[in-house]
């Protein structure tokens, strides 16, 4: 397996003195699909750019290792690393005045793991005409061209940064299906940076949530889902039960209260809640994301 | 101590030379319409059009091709300006380093300068044969390093050096405006113009020659001027790389 491991050590990036990434430490395990979640301006795109060598951190360092790369190396200005990393952004990073076949041909020539058959198949499925100029394509087709290049590159570290936002729902579903199918065939480290949490949540194995350039949480999806719960019942009982938890949100209607908490509810606690007449409900990934990154009081 | 080996190699047999060729090829194909279009316009509009105008007015008295002497420098500056805005994000996003992008750009600019200079040499030769056959006076309207269009080597040298230096100025203009934005790009204009200005003062040919001659400035010997222009142009490409090296790939605006 050629999948790569990613580490950041104390990475900071500032724009005009304002931190976009703030002393970020994280590790992405190899051969998994990671969700990089965060609100607009949370630092997702800046992190993706730093991982792919598009941008050099102001402080700290990004390290890529494993697979056929071996020991850790920084990606910036290092073709040994960047030839193994593919970042697809919504902007496309290409001139619009050239035909599709030029963009595809360039990727085929410069991407060492490129699969031409897969690229042809994906172009057919997304109905992208090879001879048409990119500027003549709809926004959805331009996004689709990006994801075709991203999937067919089969780079050991592949990052999609909101690159499928311009696609309609059927096209996005096709993208998710094709990415999963190819990931099963050729395992690699994939990062999906998005705020369409509900759409991608079933694909993700690990989730990182950024807020204001800082890592709010990083966890396997299942563990993350289990970390939150909503407790509904009489206000006094809810308050008593949730006293030891980190409260993410509270709502009250008359004497009934709903409190969303972060924390593991073990069987003993669940039994205690039931005995107190409380209802315990799961918190979806999107709800947890909203709570974790929502406006703080 | 880590026992993992650190790979210094590109994957799957890829080599720097192979990737450099592909980058060059992408520049050649992408900029081909611009360059070929310019060549076609110059041959058709300047040479054939200029000849036709002379024929129907006062008759052919001077070189039609020599009217276009200034044009390739300034057009080539536009080629140099285009390279970074059009290709930087495209190539870096495909895993190419800024170092290779700069190196490939330098090779491309030198090749484009050679191509345009060869066209100028060929058109001067074609014109000389045509004028000789028709008995027209092949008089040049601009000062040059060469005194006769039979001096193909000097024609090539003059045009190649002036075009190359102006391309490098364009390359610096493109980079400074992309990296620093419009206002700081304007402030940095004098620095970006250095390669072109140096070539003009070292070669003293074409439109500036009479002006410099009138103020008593004399061209240094070609043995000094020619390598000096090449060195200044190479330093210009390197300076562009130094400006590019810390530059992030900004998302392309749609």
What would you note in describing this structure?
The complex is a heterodimer of chains A (297) and B (254). Chain A has helices at residues 44-51, 79-82, 100-110, 116-125, 139-153, 169-185, 197-200, 221-227, 235-241, 267-275, 285-293; strands spanning 5-15, 18-28, 33-38, 59-66, 70-73, 85-89, 157-161, 189-194, 206-211, 214-220, 228-234, 246-253, 256-262, 279-282. Chain A starts with a strand and ends with a helix. Chain A is 34% helix and 32% strand. In chain A, the strands form 3 sheets. In chain A, strands 6-7-8-3-9-10 form a 6-stranded mixed β-sheet, sandwiched between helices. In chain A, strands 2-1-4-5 form a 4-stranded antiparallel β-sheet, with helices on one face. Chain A is α/β, with parallel strands linked by helices and 297 residues long. Chain A contains 11 helices and 14 strands. By secondary structure, chain B is mainly α. Chain B has helices spanning 16-56, 71-92, 98-134, 152-187, 189-192, 194-203, 207-214, 222-244. Chain A binds chain B through residues 2, 45, 49, 52-56, 65, 68-73, 77-80, 82-87, 89-95, 98, 102, 106-107, 109-113, 139, and chain B through 2, 4-14, 16, 19, 22-23, 25-26, 29-30, 86-87, 89-100, 245-246, 248-249, 251-254.
């Amino acid at each position: 397996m050629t999948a790569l491991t990613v580490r950041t050590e104390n990475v900071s990036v500032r724009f005009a003195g304002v931190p976009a990434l703030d002393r970020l430490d994280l590790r992405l395990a190899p051969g998994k699909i990671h969700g990089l979640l965060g609100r607009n301006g949370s630092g997702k795109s800046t992190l993706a750019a730093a991982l792919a060598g598009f941008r050099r951190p102001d402080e700290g360092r990004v390290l890529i290792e494993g697979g056929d790369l071996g020991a850790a190396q920084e990606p910036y200005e290092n073709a040994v690393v960047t030839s193994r990393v593919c970042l697809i952004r919504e902007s496309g990073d290409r001139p619009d005045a050239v035909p599709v076949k030029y963009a595809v041909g360039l990727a085929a020539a410069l991407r060492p793991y490129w699969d031409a058959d897969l690229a042809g198949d994906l172009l057919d499925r997304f109905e992208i005409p090879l001879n048409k100029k990119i500027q003549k394509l709809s926004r959805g087709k331009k996004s689709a061209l990006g994801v075709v290049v991203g999937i067919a590159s089969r780079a050991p570290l592949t990052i999609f940064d909101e690159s499928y936002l311009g696609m309609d729902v059927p096209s996005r579903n096709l993208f998710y299906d094709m990415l999963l199918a190819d990931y099963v065939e050729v395992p690699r480290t994939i990062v999906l940076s998005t705020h369409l949490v509900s759409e991608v949540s079933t694909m993700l194995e690990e989730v990182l949530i950024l807020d204001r350039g800082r890592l709010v949480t990083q966890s396997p999806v299942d563990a993350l889902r289990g970390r939150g719960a909503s407790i509904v019942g009489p206000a006094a009982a809810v308050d008593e039960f949730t006293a030891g938890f980190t409260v993410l949100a509270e709502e009250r209607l008359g004497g009934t209260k709903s409190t969303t908490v972060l924390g593991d509810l073990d069987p003993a606690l669940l039994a205690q809640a039931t005995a107190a007449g409380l209802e315990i409900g799961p918190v979806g990934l999107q709800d947890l994301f909203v709570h974790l990154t929502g406006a703080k009081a | 101590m880590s026992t993992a080996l650190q790979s210094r190699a590109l994957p799957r047999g890829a080599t720097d030379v192979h990737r450099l060729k592909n980058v060059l090829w992408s520049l050649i194909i992408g900029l081909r319409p611009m360059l070929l279009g310019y060549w076609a316009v110059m041959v058709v509009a300047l040479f054939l059009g200029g000849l036709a105008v002379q024929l129907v007015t006062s008759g052919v008295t001077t070189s039609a091709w020599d009217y276009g002497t200034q044009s390739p420098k300034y057009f080539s500056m536009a080629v140099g300006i285009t390279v970074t805005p059009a290709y930087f994000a495209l190539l870096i996003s495909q895993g190419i380093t800024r170092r290779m992008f700069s190196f490939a750009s330098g090779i491309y600019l030198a090749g484009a300068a050679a191509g345009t200079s060869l066209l100028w040499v060929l058109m001067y030769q074609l014109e000389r044969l045509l004028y000789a056959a028709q008995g027209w006076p092949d008089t040049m309207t601009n000062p040059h390093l060469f005194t006769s269009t039979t001096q193909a080597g000097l024609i090539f040298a003059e045009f190649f050096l002036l075009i190359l230096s102006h391309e490098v100025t364009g390359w610096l203009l493109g980079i400074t405006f992309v990296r620093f934005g419009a206002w700081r790009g304007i402030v940095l204009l004098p620095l970006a113009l250095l390669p072109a200005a140096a070539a003009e003062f070292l070669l003293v040919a074409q439109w500036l020659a009479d002006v410099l001659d009138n103020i008593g400035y004399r061209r240094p010997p070609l043995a000094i001027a020619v390598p000096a222009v090449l060195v200044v142009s190479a330093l210009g490409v390197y300076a562009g790389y130094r400006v590019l090296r810390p530059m992030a790939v900004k998302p392309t605006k749609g």
